[in-house]
Inverse folding.
């Protein structure tokens, strides 16, 4: 597929959620295993997230100026907050009187209404998008895959490890905390499966000994859209990415790549 004929990407957002490791080791991140019935990345381990809905764009337009963001960027961050609450029960990127009971009630209301704005109004919460740090943007527009998402990745930090999460029973089958290297090791053993962007992001995350380190690198490297390209190396096709976007591994043999 060439760039000229590539489809428009479906706007999407995801948050890479950190927490402190119980043993003071490398920080852990939250991952979910998607239902095998899902069209995109079925059966794969990914970070929580999903598409940006019309209601996210509407709310983003209304609040962007207050947060110093472009409306499009605000909509993506709102989608990341909404999807995280939907899929995990965690209320990130929000401020107000938030506890386990109110987060659970808000999640149920969100499932009913499908939009974040009425939830904020009902619970007296405000968006606190300063909790979210832009990390990456992936848009595989040149790949021959069934559904192409233009996904913005964000970082957020829980700090404590004493936080309960639960699956939404709709798109996901399992939520688990793991170090980035632990997820890569699990994939090497065949315990989980990773698509190309998730693998590359885990390799990047494995560089960091703390959330602070990850945040510092994310703020130091401007987010540029990563559009993987197929190139020939030593007579074999490789799927490659930008060499200066903070990723320690920038290519993989095409025959070994798992796609969505």
């Amino acid at each position: 597929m060439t760039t000229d004929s590539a489809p428009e990407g479906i706007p999407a957002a995801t948050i890479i959620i950190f927490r402190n490791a119980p043993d003071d080791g490398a920080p852990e991140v939250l991952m979910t295993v998607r239902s095998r019935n899902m069209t995109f990345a079925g059966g794969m381990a990914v970070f929580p997230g999903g598409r940006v809905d019309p209601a996210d764009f509407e709310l983003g337009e209304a609040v962007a100026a207050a947060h110093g963001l472009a409306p499009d960027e605000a909509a993506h961050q709102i989608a990341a907050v909404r999807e995280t609450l939907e899929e995990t029960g965690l209320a990130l990127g929000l401020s107000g009187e938030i506890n386990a009971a109110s987060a659970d009630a808000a999640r149920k209301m969100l499932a009913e209404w499908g939009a974040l704005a009425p939830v904020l109004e009902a619970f007296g919460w405000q968006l606190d998008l300063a909790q979210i740090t832009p990390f990456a943007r992936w848009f595989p527009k040149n790949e021959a895959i069934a559904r192409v998402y233009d996904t913005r990745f964000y970082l957020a930090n829980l700090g404590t490890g004493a936080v309960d999460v639960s699956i939404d029973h709709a798109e996901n089958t399992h939520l688990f905390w793991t170090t980035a290297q632990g997820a890569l090791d699990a994939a090497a053993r065949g315990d989980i499966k990773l698509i190309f962007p998730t693998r590359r992001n885990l390799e990047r995350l494995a560089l960091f000994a703390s959330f602070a380190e990850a945040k510092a690198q994310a703020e130091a490297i401007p987010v540029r859209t990563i559009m993987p390209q197929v190139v020939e190396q030593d007579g074999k096709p490789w799927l490659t990415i930008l060499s200066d976007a903070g990723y320690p591994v920038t290519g993989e043999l095409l025959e070994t790549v798992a796609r969505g």
Remarks:
- Residues 1-6, 37-41 have pLDDT under 50 and may be disordered.
- The chain is about 30% helix and 25% strand.
- The helical segments are 54-63, 71-88, 100-113, 117-123, 180-189, 196-205, 211-220.
- The CA atoms of residues 137 and 224 lie 6 Å apart.
